[in-house]
Amino acid sequence: MKAFQLKYKEAVKASAFTLLTFVLLLFTALITAAFGQGEGNSPYQAFDEDLMPHGMPFQSWETPMACRRTFYVDQAHPEASDLNPGSERRPWQTINHAAQHLQPGDRVLIKGGVYRESVHPARGGSGPGEMITYQAAEGAKVVIKGSVILKEENWQPGKGWRYNGPRHTYEDGEEPGVKIWQYGLESSWFGGYNPFGMMNISHDREWVDYRKIKMDAHFRRRGMIFLNGEPLEQVEHSVDLAEKTNGAFWVEHNGLRIHVRFPGDKGPGDFLAEATVKEQVFAPKEYGLGYIKLKGITFQHAGNGFPVPQRGLVSAARGHHWIIEDCTIEWANSLGIDLGNEMWHTITEPTVGHHIIRRNTIRNCGIAGLEGMKAEAYLVEDNLFENIGWQDAEHGWESGAIKFHRARNTLIRRNVFRNIT
Is there a contact between 106 and 134 (Cβ–Cβ < 8 Å)? Predict the structure, then answer.
């Protein structure tokens, strides 16, 4: 009996080895047939980059465009005004003004500068050949920021709060003081949305188990402070500032005054200080706009909350057939770009999707770089995603360079991902 069992095991091993050998030979033959064996042949050259897993090629709707009219925005022009006709000699002053006037087939060329505004397109194009295009002028560095400069003369020494000692006590304590400055935020900056008065935590939060996860990131305010272009750490309590020799800020409960410890206990005159005052930097107010193109523009500084809903620094607002190429999207408190239907409780726009995201740099986003609820026929190619997820939010299920729901006929290729939390 033992001899029989031994022979049986040896036969099984031999059969398994024979099968494995056959599979390897078959795989080698298939690779050779697919890639060829000539000198200089690269296996990568043999792939059809448009071929999808189901065997059909990716179908792109993109066609060459010919702009019917070109308008100009140049805030540095001595005669710039939104009362002008938008010509190169008499340009508009703001991009959002252009966004209210552009028609299908129109293009706006934006001259260099930092534009502190949010842009809300009033309409989209009428088809692939008649898109509405927002483009940086040739050689121009165009930055659209959802932040304001905190003027040096409006800072005051901090007062009325304890900045050191234990968190929970009624006593002022004997600890030596630390150098804190305070700044009153102007309500007119916000236009109804104050990121310093709102927490990060998602509006749809029945899934969060408060007892089991670290909630610090969720309970921080959405507003961000930048010193010389770098973000300043936010702390939960005023007394936490005493420990932050490299600088930090705390927000009063009504969201209208901040308290800052500058790095090295320097003063406001040593830094360019900026505060985010917008939820989104480029986003239509009307759902479902299509055929909009963004090219060569840098978008920065959004005080958006954790998804869901997905509301990006740049947002298609449930739109369709957008092209975003050669742009930089960075320093979103939460999400860089949203292209889908925002969340599961929305009414699905029938045409949502069909976007092209190409050659962009998407970085320094607190939760995610690119998201889409119903990712229908996206093309995502040649982008750099880096330094994403720095909020380090437990149970932040939307975290990642890319998060797509219900993806179908979507092609993601030749992207670089690095430093993703």
Answer: no
Sign of CA dihedral 209, 213, 219, 225: negative
Q: Are strands 411-413 and 298-302 parallel, antiparallel or unpaired?
A: unpaired
Determine the Cα–Cα distance for residues 230 and 321; give it in Å rounded to an integer.
34
CA-CA-CA-CA torsion sign (421, 343, 310, 382): positive
pTM: 0.86
Dist. CA 201–CA 215, nearest whole Å: 9
- State which amino acid sits at residue 33: A
Assess whether the previous peptide bond of 176 is cis (omega < 30° from 0).
Answer: no
- Give the tokens for residue 65: 């465009």
Instruction: Retrieve residue 162's tokens.
Output: 């304890």
Burial class (CB in 10 A: 0-12, 13-18, 19+), 230: exposed
**pLDDT average per 10 residues of sequence, the chain (421 residues):** 46 52 52 44 53 88 91 97 97 98 97 97 96 97 98 95 80 72 94 92 71 85 96 94 95 96 94 97 96 98 94 97 98 97 88 96 98 94 97 88 94 96 90
Buried b (16+ CB within 10 A) or exposed e, 257-292: bbbbbbbeeeebeebebbbbbbbbbbbbeeeebbbb
Q: Who contacts 387 (Cβ-Cβ below 8 Å, separation ≥6)?
A: 363, 364, 365, 418, 419
CA distances to 54, 200, 313, 329, 373 from 352, rounded to whole Å, are 22, 27, 18, 22, 9
Work out the burial of residue 249: count CB atoms within 10 Å of its CB; fewer than 13 is exposed, 13-18 middle, 19 or more buried: buried
Q: How far apart are CA 234 and CA 147, in angstroms?
A: 17
CA–CA–CA angle 215, 398, 200 (5° rounding): 40
| DSSP single-letter state for residue 14 | H
Ordered alpha helix ranges (H), 155-274: 216-219
The DSSP 8-state label assigned to residue 232 in this structure reads P
**DSSP E strand stretches across 292-366:** 292-295, 298-302, 314-315, 323-325, 328-332, 335-338, 356-358, 361-365
